[in-house]
Design goal:
alpha/beta; 6-stranded mixed sheet; 47% helix; 9% strand; flat
């Protein structure tokens, strides 16, 4: 005997879920409290955002119906405009993601005409392609229809626009009706594809993308951060592929990176911070490390002190050599900037500089607590490592300097 599990989620359960949604709780938290599967609560949250409390409580009744204009507007916003599906559901008042996904699929295959309601009784032939093959020469004509639109192995993998292009190329040699049947292509979809050729993705953004990418290696992210454009990540990647732009940052190379570990050569410390990088304010938790820059004149090294609370570099030293003199310069700047009341924890790796007696004594004299990452575990100082990544991506990649003083 089968049991409809949806009967467990009655109106009172959805009322409690609506109250929690109003308080700002996420669907995972609500699912844990109510003992309901997270997938079901996620659907409830989408319906709540789209139709409000009344729509959520009315679930289980008659299925909602949407007019042709709403379907086209929602599908176009997602497919052409890059809008996220939850946002489209909320904007157009769509109660469920299931019909929206179906509309997007139909819109991609056949455009707006594919979303028009069909007259009652009209349906697709059980096997239009098989019927065309059974008619043989009548459908294929002399030479036959190309395999890519005649066989399930080829034509089923092609988009509607590509099948329409193949049919258009053969339309002068064979009857159009037979070609459309062999390609399983509705006549309205065929003419829509011909009158709406595939154009570039978001052409209005292309000049701006080219300008940003020519200035910054990772400039695509600036479209949203600076220009305020509503564009999805995948839409930006699609534009870049069409324009032949390839992001070269953060790719693995055979370049040997700088490593300061020399074993236990001095005093080591426990990992006091324990990857808890959240700070209540400035001068409470900090991190330091040494990163290398490879330039035309040679190599340069940056040793900063990064404040996890204020997200600022409060002290630094830039040198041609990652030696103890560089650390002394950085410590002198830190001692001058550090407030007298503060006793911060400073995260660092087990590099030889940080085990050195002079370095340890200097931090102890300033009231700074040393916290060392475990051997070979860069994630213990992930906040500082992440700052290095953003610094190099936004400032260093794609640029070069002729001499050290100019770079410094």
């Amino acid at each position: 005997m089968s049991i409809d599990l949806r009967l467990r989620h009655d109106r009172s359960t959805r009322e409690r879920a609506a109250e929690m949604f109003e308080r700002g709780l996420g669907y995972r938290s609500v699912a844990r409290v109510l003992g309901v599967p997270a997938e079901a609560v996620r659907d409830w949250l989408g319906k709540y955002r789209a139709t409000g409390r009344d729509g959520l409580l009315a679930m289980g009744g008659r299925q909602a119906r949407y007019d042709f204009e709403t379907k086209v507007a929602a599908a176009s916003a997602v497919v052409d405009g890059g809008m996220a599906k939850p946002e489209a559901m909320e904007r157009f008042g769509i109660a469920s993601a299931t019909p929206l996904k179906r509309w997007c699929r139909l819109y991609r295959e056949g455009g707006a005409d594919a979303l028009r309601p069909k007259p009652k009784g009209e349906g697709r032939a059980p096997d239009a392609r098989g019927g065309a093959r059974a008619r043989g020469p009548q459908a294929r004509g002399p030479g036959g229809v190309p395999k890519k639109i005649d066989s399930p192995e080829g034509g089923a993998r092609l988009a509607a626009r590509e099948r329409a292009a193949a049919v258009a190329a053969l339309s002068g040699r064979f009857p159009l009706a037979d070609l459309l049947t062999a390609a399983s292509l509705p006549r309205s979809t065929y003419y829509y594809a011909l009158s709406h050729p595939k154009g570039p993705t978001r052409p209005e953004l292309r000049p701006r993308v080219a300008e940003i990418f020519g200035r910054l290696p990772n400039g695509a992210m600036e479209l949203r951060a600076v220009d305020g454009e509503r564009v999805a990540d995948k839409t930006v990647l699609k534009m870049m592929r069409e324009m032949g732009l390839r992001c070269g940052i953060r790719r693995e190379t055979d370049y040997r990176r700088y490593n300061s570990y020399r074993g236990v050569v001095g005093e080591t410390f426990e990992n006091v911070l324990g990857r808890d990088f959240a700070a209540d304010g400035p001068w409470r938790k900090m991190g330091t490390d040494v990163t290398e820059f490879k330039l035309s004149f040679g190599r340069a090294y940056l040793a900063p002190v990064y404040d996890f609370g204020s997200r600022e570099i409060v002290a630094h030293s830039i040198s041609l050599h990652p030696d103890l003199a560089q650390q002394k310069e950085m410590l002198a700047m830190l001692a001058e900037a550090k407030p007298a009341w503060s006793e911060p924890i400073m995260q660092m790796d087990m590099g030889w500089q940080y085990q050195h007696a002079e370095f340890v004594a200097a931090l102890k004299g300033m009231g700074v607590v040393q916290s060392m990452s475990r051997k070979g575990n860069c994630l213990d100082n992930a906040c500082t490592e992440g700052m290095f990544g953003h610094l190099k991506d936004e400032f260093f990649r794609g640029r070069d300097w002729d001499d050290f003083e100019e770079f410094k």
